[in-house]
Amino acid sequence: MKRKKTIAAAVLAGALGLAALGGCSEPMADTGATYNPGEPPLMPASHEGRYERLGANGCYGCHGSSDTAEVLLSMATPLPADHYVGGDAATRAIDGPRAECITCHPVSQE
Amino acid sequence: MELTRRAFVKSTAVALASAAAAGTMAGCSSLAGTGADSAALAGDTVKTVGVCRFCGCGCGVIVEAKDGKVISVTGDPENGSSRGLNCVKGYYLARALYGEDRLTKPLIRDDASTKGTPDGLREATWEEALDLVAGKLRDTWKADKSRLAFWGSGQQPIVEGYCTAKFWKAGLLSNNIDPNARLCMASAVVGFMNVFQTDEPAGCYADIDETDVFVTWGANMAEAHPMLYSRLTARKLADGNVRHYDVTTMTTRTSASADKVITFRPGSDIAIANAIANYLIVNDKYDHDFVADHVQFKQGTENLGNATDDGYDKSDIGQAVDTVEPIDFDAFAARLAPYTLEYAAEISGVPAEDIQELAEVFADKGRKVLSLWTMGVNQHNRGTWMNHCIYNIHLLTGRYARPGDGAFSLTGQPTACGTAREVGTFSHRLPADLVVKNPDHRRYTEAIWDLPNGYLDAIETPGFHTVKMFRELSKGNIDFLWSAHNNWAVSMPNLTRFLGKGDLAGINDAFICVAEVYPTLSCQYADVVLPAAMWVEREGAFGNGERRTAVFEKAVDAPGEAKWDLWMLMEIAKRVLAGEQIGGEDAFDHLFGAWYDADAAAFKGTDREVCASIWEEYRTFSNPSLNPDAEAINAEAKLKMEAKQLAPYEEYIHNHGLTWPVREVDGKWLPTLWRFCDGKQEDGFDEHGVETYGAHDKAGGVSFYKSADQRPSVVFRPYEPPAEEPSEEYPFWFSTGRLLEHWHTGSMTRRVPELARALPEALLDVNPADCERLGVTDGDRVRLTSRFGTCDITVSTAGRTRPPEGMVFAPFFAEETLINLVVQDTYCPLSKEPDFKKTCVSIEKIEG
C-alpha cells in the first residue's frame, strides 16, 4: 500500500513537473519534437502497430502507474494525471474516454 | 422519462484534470482574462472559450493566447458535447493558424491562361480586389442571374452563413447558392424531412453513454468522429455487456471495438436493413404499441435508375423521385416479404445467421440500441433511401427519440447543422427549415427581413445544387463563382471534368473568387483570392451534430491584411447593391445596415456586438413573438417556428453552448437534449414542445409533434443496385473518405508538422490477395483508372483500412494524389449527394 502511494506521488510529480516545464515548451526525448502545452506527443515510429495489437494496456505498461512498470525508471513519458480516473494516478485506472490512446497520440511515420 | 445515471465521464474528474493543467500553466502565464478585448496588455496570456473548427463533433476548447498569438488549445470541460475531450487535430489547432504560407494579401490573376498552375497571381489592394469581384458579380447579375453562383460550406460560421444567404436570396434574388454540406449530409437531411418533416436528430451524444448495443452503419467514427468514438469505447469499457456491431464494407479502426464486423457488398445495405425489418414483422417482434401510436406507412417511386447524366433531374423519373403514397401495414409487410434473410445474404454476401443475429438485437426489448451512421450511408446512390431504412427498423421497434435508444446520423462538419441546415444555405432553402417553394415560408421570411409582400416570389424555384453548379461551370454556363470555407478543386467528385480536363471552356472563362486562408488548389483556378481571417481570428458560432450551438470568441487578430469573411461579404454586397432599392430604401442599408456602416466600410461595434446583432435577427425565425408580422403568419399557417427555438446570444457564451430548442423557464434558458421525448425540461427532455404541440402518454413516452399527423413515415424502399458494379474493365470497388489526422482536404492540418508526420501521404489500401494477383507490393506506384478519370497513388497493405478482396480505399486529403479525379459524380436522386464510396476502378502497376 505504501509503495503504491509512493509511485502514484512520483507519477503525479513527474506529470506535473513535465507539464510545468512544457508550459514554456520542452523537447521530448523520444522524437526530438517540441510540444506546446496541451499538445499530445506523437508515438515514435518504433511503436507502429503497437496500439492496434495491444490496446491501451500496451501503452499503460510503460507509461502508466503500476507495480510492475515504473515510468520514471523506464524513461517513458508518464501519463499525465488527467488521464486517470478522478485525475489521480493512484487509481491506476485510465479515465474511460482517454483509453483510445491513438486518437490523440498517432504514430510518427518519420 | 427517467435517465439511468451511468458513470462515464465523471465531471468531477474532468474538472480536477482541468484544474491541474491550469495550475501547471501558471508557471508562465498570468491569470486568464475574459475575452480578447482584455488582451491588450503585452505579456499577458488570455484564455477564451471556443469550439474546434474541424469535424461535426463540435468539441469545446479553451484557447490561450499571448502577445497576439494563440499558444495553446485544450479541452473545455464545461462544453456539454465533449466534456473536456478532444482529438489530436483539436489539440494542435493553435499550429493550424501559423503555417508559413498564410494568405495575407488579396491576389489577382491577370491572365486566365495561367489557371491550373501555381503561377499567375499578383498582390493587390483590397480596394482593387473588391472592386473587381463586385464588378464581375454585378455585371453577371444584371446580364443573367442564372449564371452566378456561391459555393459555401458546413464550416461557414452561423452569422456569416446567415448574411450570405440573405444577400444571395434577398439581395440578388438568386437561389444559386449551395454548401459543400451537400457532399456530406444532404441524404440525411432529405431522410429527416421525408420521415419526420423536420431536419434534426432527436437524440444527442449522451445516448452513447446510455445505450446497450451500438450498431455502426457505414461509419468510421474512430477516424472521422474521434471524440464520439472515444465515448463509445469508454461505454464498452465501463460495462462488459455492451455490444457493438460494425456494419461496413471494409474493416476500419472502428471495427476494433466491434464484437461482430458485418462486411457487406457495397450498396447492399438496403437489402440487409429490409431483411431485418421483414424478420421483425414476420416473427412478430416489432413494437405494436409504438407502431399503433406513432407510425404511418408509405411507398414511393421506384426503379430510379442513376443520376449520372446531366439530364437526370429533368427526366420523367428524375421529376418523380420525391413522390410517395400512403399504404397500410399489411401492404408494407407485403413489400418487405421478398427480403428474407437468405435473399439479403445472397445480395450482400453476409451470412443469413449474422443478419438474423442483428435483427434479434433490435427485437430484444430488454436492451437499448443506438444506430450511428456517417458517409457510407449518406454518400450512396440510394443515400436517402438507406436513411429511411434505418429509421424504419428503429420506428418498428420503438427505438427512437428515447435516451440510449435511437438512430443518429453523425454529421461531418463543424456547422453543417448550424449553418448549412439550420440557417439554410442551400439552393432550395430559406432560414430555419423553410423552403423557397412554399408561399407561407416566403411570407414569413419577408416579414423578418422586412421585404415587400411577395418580394421573394422571384426565388420560388430552387437553384443549382452543388453537382449541377459545377457541371454548369464546366460547361461554360457559369460566369461568376464565389467560394468560401471549402476547397472544391480537391473535394468535388469527378474533378477530371470540373478542373477543365473534360469540358475545357468553363473554368477558364468563368470569373472565380476564392476566399481562403492558405494557397489551396482551388486558388490555382481563382481570378481573385481574398485572404481570410481564420477561426478565432474573429468571433463566430457553430452548430454541431447534436443540435448544440456554441460560440468561439475572438482570441487574436488575423495576420497581415487578412479579413473576416463577413467584412468581405459586406463590402462586396455594398458595391453590388449600390443604387438598388428595396421598399423605397437603399437596398444594402435595408438588409445589412443594422450592423454595417457602408460609408465607413466598418462594422457598427465589436465582433461580439456584430455577431449578437445578426444573431438576434436570425433568432427571430425561431422566436416569432419578436416580430408581430411573423407571429401572425406563424399562427395562421401553423408553421410551429418556435419548435426550434434559439436563445439570446449571450446564453451561448455563458453556457459554453446549448442544444436547441432552448426554452425560457422562470427566466432561465434551458436546452433540450432528447427531442420529442416527454419529461422535465430541466433534465434535458422536450417538456415544452410536447406540452405545446404534442400529446402525453403515447407509447414510449415520445410525441412526434412536428411530423404530419404527428406520425413519422415508415417508407418502403427497395434494394436497387449501385450505379456501376465491378466489371472486367474496372474490377475493383474504390471508396474514399477522411482519416484521423487530416481535416478534409488537409489545407490546414497538413501545415501542422505533427499531423503531417503522423499521416504524410495518401496511400491506396489494397487487400494482400489482390496485391498478389496484381503483382504489386507495399510502396509500389499504381495507376487508378475509372470511367471518369485517372490518378497515380502508392499501394499499402498496412494502411488504416483493411478492405476485402475486390475493394480498395484511399483518403481524399492529398492534393498531389487528387483521388477525386477518379471518383464518380453520380448522386442520390433525392438528395443530390454524390456517391463517393462506390466508383469502379482498374489498378495498373506503373513500372520504373
Automatic annotation (TrEMBL), chain A:
UniProt entry tagged with the keyword Iron: no
Listed InterPro entries: Multihaem_cyt_sf, NapB
Keywords assigned: Signal
Annotated signal sequence range: 1-29
Top-level taxon of the source organism: Bacteria
UniProt xrefs under Gene3D superfamilies: Flavocytochrome C3, Chain A
One Gene Ontology biological process: anaerobic respiration
The protein, known as: Uncharacterized protein
TrEMBL record, chain B:
Reactions catalysed according to its record: 2 Fe(II)-[cytochrome] + nitrate + 2 H(+) = 2 Fe(III)-[cytochrome] + nitrite + H2O
GO CC, any one term: extracellular region
An annotated Gene Ontology molecular function: molybdopterin cofactor binding
Every 4Fe-4S Mo/W bis-MGD-type domain range: 45-101
Top-tier EC class: oxidoreductase
Signal peptide: 1-26
The protein's required cofactors: [4Fe-4S] cluster; Mo-bis(molybdopterin guanine dinucleotide)
Post-translational modifications: Predicted to be exported by the Tat system. The position of the signal peptide cleavage has not been experimentally proven.
Residues the entry annotates as binding Mo-bis(molybdopterin guanine dinucleotide): 89, 155, 180, 184, 267-269, 375, 379, 487, 565, 820, 837
Keywords: 4Fe-4S, Electron transport, Iron, Iron-sulfur, Metal-binding, Molybdenum, Nitrate assimilation, Oxidoreductase, Signal, Transport
Domain of life: Bacteria
Assembly and binders: Component of the nitrate reductase NapAB complex composed of NapA and NapB.
Family named by the database record: Belongs to the prokaryotic molybdopterin-containing oxidoreductase family. NasA/NapA/NarB subfamily.
Protein name, entry field: Nitrate reductase
Organism: Adlercreutzia muris
